[in-house]
Design goal:
Layout lengths: L18 H7 L2 H4 L3 H17 L5 H20 L11 H13 L1 H4 L7 H37 L4 E6 L2 E7 H26 L1 E2 L15 H8 L3 E2 L3 H6 L2 H27 L7 E2 L18 H24 L14 H23 L2 E2 L1 H7 L7 H10 L4 H18 L8 H5 L15 H6 L9 H17 L3
Parallel strand pairs: 3-4
Antiparallel strand pairs: 1-2, 5-6
Helix pairs in contact: 3-4, 3-7, 3-9, 4-5, 7-8, 7-13, 7-19, 8-11, 8-19, 11-12, 11-13, 12-13, 15-16
Family: Belongs to the lyase 1 family. Argininosuccinate lyase subfamily.
EC number: 4.3.2.1
Pathway: Amino-acid biosynthesis; L-arginine biosynthesis; L-arginine from L-ornithine and carbamoyl phosphate: step 3/3
Amino acid sequence: MKKNSNKAWGGRFRMPLSKNAEKFTASIDFDKRLYKADILQSIAYAKALKKAKVLNEKELKKITNGLEGIMRGIESGRIKYSIEFEDIHMNIEKLLIDQIGDAGKKLHTGRSRNDQVSTDLRMYLKGEITEVIALIKRLQQVVLELAEENISIMIPGYTHLQRAQPVLLSHQLMAYYEMLERDKARLRQAYERCDVMPLGSGALAGVNFNLDRIFLAKELGFSQITQNSMDAVSDRDFVIDCLSASAQIIMHLSRFSEEIILWSTFEFDYIELSDAYTTGSSLMPQKKNPDIAELVRGKSGRIYGNLFSVLTMMKALPLAYNRDMQEDKEPLFDSIDTIKEVLQIFAEMIKSAKFNKEIADKAVRKGHLTATDIVYYLVRQGVPFRDAHENVGKIVAHCVESNMELEYLSLKQLKEFSDKFSYDVQRIISAEASIASKETVGGTSSKKVREAIKSARTNLLRDKA
């Protein structure tokens, strides 16, 4: 009976793998994107084998030249992968052996695909995290530009989706800047966890000869090496960290999208999105739909699902490596690709948006948004806060019944509710005065928002990583 002689593991088997099983277990269709990390890792590993006296100088040169040639062949599109060789690691090894012969067969000495794939994945993710952070910084730059350009626009701030207090539009935009700042911090933490090299752990127990792992780590740009070979090959925490960070990024962008969708409705009309980032209706000719924002919002479920997919896959795996862990890559790659695409298109969409100052200004005059400022006025006159709160609540109820706005009450009308009101109350009752009074750090006054924008811009310029 034909044995699995074409498989790296085929010596023990006397029956070939079925075609369906071969197709089912193969990962080359998706892990092929790891080719560069795998080749760079293999070149470094060959150097470590030479240092450990497993390879001689001639063999090292043949392996290095062969791998560099394979890299060029892949990048030019000349090299085709085969499902027969399962994954990117075995495809590259087979190509190398075909090119250089026995020297290529020595490359895998002491190395398992278990520590090989984990190393590849960490190298790949370090590069991807760096790219995602750059895209977040670009989006933050756009948010800062919008905040600066629209510093004079006031809008109603909301809690429970009910009008609450007047705020500057720029203040609300800067809230998303802060969310993105935390997203970068989470990604940097994920990067640190990726920056630990498992290579040299073998399949699970370590390596039988003197492999210099510190040398390998320096060659591959890792700052640390793993300390337990079983944990090293079975750990996917770093993958989950990246998926978790991606889930929080998309959550923040989904919230931002929801605001944009609301603001672009006829009922709000605070913002107009560019035609370049909206679509129409196949039936209703008047429609202008915020499809980009809606799709960003919709992709949150997909990225959450990717996180839960890997968490569930890992939840009951015994040590050390299990083939289940092959299932980490498709959700991970999908989340990375989606986040990069979303960050880019979202920045383009909001950069081209226009805000409607006139409509926003009218909106901020409705809804009795300065009621809390009147409470504070009475508190400064010596009225206990709870009594002041109740009193102003009665004033608001009167305004609702009379179909009038709080801002337009006369001093005489206010005095009907409390003799503590004086002429100076008129100076604090407007939306502009309410906003200007919020002078605490993090508040919505124009002065504090300008300071926040300036500080953010300085920090962004200093942010080199």
